[in-house]
Amino acid sequence: MSEQVHNRLAMVRAERKVSRQRLAEAVGAHYQTIGYIERRQYNPSLDLALKIAGFFELPVEALFSLEPFRPLTDEIYGRKRS
Is 41 exposed, middle or buried (0-12, 13-18, 19+ CB in 10 A)? Predict the structure, then answer.
């Protein structure tokens, strides 16, 4: 069984004002696949994860992780993990 891949895709996409359709076209995927990834119903292939990260000009680990992401406010303002 594969591990759950956590992601910040929906947040980054909204921040950059990129539609699912536009992102899907840019990375060669179906727009529904982007939705499945955002809802954690589908783990992207390494190839797709790298294409998505490249589209946003971010390192892949900024978008995808095997561990849950800390809230951005914690990361920005320095709240320590419990």
Answer: exposed
* Beta carbons within 10 angstroms of residue 12's beta carbon: 18
Determine the Cα–Cα distance for residues 23 and 53; give it in Å rounded to an integer.
Answer: 11
Distance spanning both ends of the chain, measured CA to CA: 29
Integer Cα distance of 22 and 78 in angstroms = 34
Strand partners, 6: 65
pLDDT tens-place string over residues 49-69: 999 999 999 999 999 999 998
The pTM of this model reads 0.85
Q: What is d(CA 46, CA 51) in angstroms, rounded to the nearest whole number?
A: 9
